[in-house]
Amino acid sequence: MNALPLWAAILVALLMVLAGVVTLIGSIGLLRLPSFNERMHAPTLGTTLGTFCMVLASTLVASLLHGRPIFHEWLISLFLFITAPVTAILLMQSATQRHPAKRSQPPTEPPTP
After folding, report:
1. What are 75-92's pLDDT values in tens digits?
2. Is residue 60 within 8 Å of residue 8, measured between CB atoms?
3. Which of 4, 76, 83, 97 registers the highest number of CB atoms within 10 A of its CB?
């Protein structure tokens, strides 16, 4: 039975806890931030950074247990790293077009005699 070295187990545990904390902070930001555009930013960053930490931990465990570099997880997560920010940008553009900001009207000048 292969076992992880203590340093690797500690590093993997820290990465997994960090992934959970970052994702939780992003979820709290989704609930607490006031506007739609601000609410879109927090979970996107939380999900992307949380997934990065989780994939890094998974790659470390798989590589150490197999005795060679394993990068399959990165191919799977590449799709998330590309699509999450793009999806957030498209949702924000859609919201901007649906509810455009109120444009200030130029001051009206009194008619000249």
Report:
1. 888 888 888 778 878 888
2. yes
3. 4
